[in-house]
Predict the structure.
Amino acid sequence: MELEGKKILVTGGTKGIGAAIVRRFSEAGAQVITTARGEPSNKLDNVIYIQADLSTPQGSEVVSSQVAKHWKNADGIVHVVGGSAAPPGGFVKLNDKEWDNAIQQNLMAAVRLDRALLPAMIENGKGGIIHVTSIQRVLPLYESTIAYAAAKAALANYSKALSKEVGPKGVRVNTIAPGWVQTEATVNFLQTLAAANGSDIETARNNVMQALGGIPIGRPAFPEEVAELAAFLMSDRAISIHGAEYVIDGGTVPTV
């Protein structure tokens, strides 16, 4: 019960990494509010769900107002919302709309909510923020995720600057940079890839790992493993960890 009594907002908490973090935090005793664009099919009884699109200013306003309504203020925020829906084909396929979508979803969603909820944390003199970035901020893939990788790099830079500003005021800011994580979406992708190539999921998984340059541990991470790291960073066990980035990629990034 390391998070007992803490009021924590987790964005994008109905699928993949976000859902695993919501479950882990709830099991650790936290009160959790989470967000999603759509209505989730499987809700946890003790979790408050807010339907909002955080890539828009209106979505951020909905979430911040609901947090104030239920709690007045939050003790922690975990920004998981992010992703890329850009078409393949490299930089020439990315028009202004694709770039804007990537920046709004992967950077501005976090910036807006921080701006709305951080002042109350500062007033209380305590709080914790975790921004989920990506190893693509240092290992971008050119085929379809250039804008996503650039937005995640911006989020990491923003996180470091924010940590310097609010750390002296009692609020800790850290980032988690996952590599390839085997979520439900990943499994669907592998099934599609296997069907297109006339192979099986294991072959498709190995092909993706090779495209990444290899994963030394031989497999993707699992959402629960990322959630375990997030629980540690949000707990008082990590009280002196601030302004840090934790990479969880099985050794994918080949450099120091």
In short: The chain has a mean pLDDT of 94. The chain has two domains: 7-181+221-248, 182-219. Residues 96-124 form the longest helix (29 residues).
